Amino acid sequence: MKFFILGHGRHGKDTFAELLCEMAPGLKFVSSSLFVCERAVFPTLGPRYAYETAEECFADRANHRDEWHELISAFNSPDKARLARQLFVDFDLYVGLRCVEELEEARHFADLVLWVDRSEHLPPEPKSSNTITANDCDLIVPNNGTLADLRERAERLVFALELNKL
Are strands 139-142 and 93-95 parallel, antiparallel or unpaired? Predict the structure, then answer.
C-alpha cells in the first residue's frame, strides 16, 4: 500500500509514519523533505546559507519554509507529480507534501491520503508554504493527545488495513 501522510509542520507526520512502519514492517519511508533536499533544495540553499551538507540544510528547513516550497514547486514544474513518482519507486509513504496541485496530480499513486492534525497545540503553516488542508485528505488522524494516543491510532489503522486484506 502507498500513503500520503500530510499536515502542518511539526504536527507529527514523521512520527506517525515511523509508528506505521514499526507496526507494518513491510512499509518503508524516508522524509520527503530530506529526499527533495538532496535533489532540489540543497543545490540552491547550500551556497546561499553556507550549508556544508544536505543534512545541515534539512535540519534548518523550518527557518526557510517559503524558500523550500518555491524550490520544490520548481522541481515539480511542469510535471507536478515528479517528486511523488520518484519517491514512490522505493518508498511506501510520502510524508509532507505541501502543494495541493501536486497532490491532485499525484493522488493516483497512493491508496490513502492521511492528514495528521495537532491544531489544538500548534498553529497552521501559512498558505505560502502549505496549500493543502485536511479537507483535501481521505482521513484525519488527530494528534492532540499523547504519543500513546497516536500509537493507538496507528495500530487501529494497521488493523483496519489488515482486515481489508482478508
Answer: unpaired
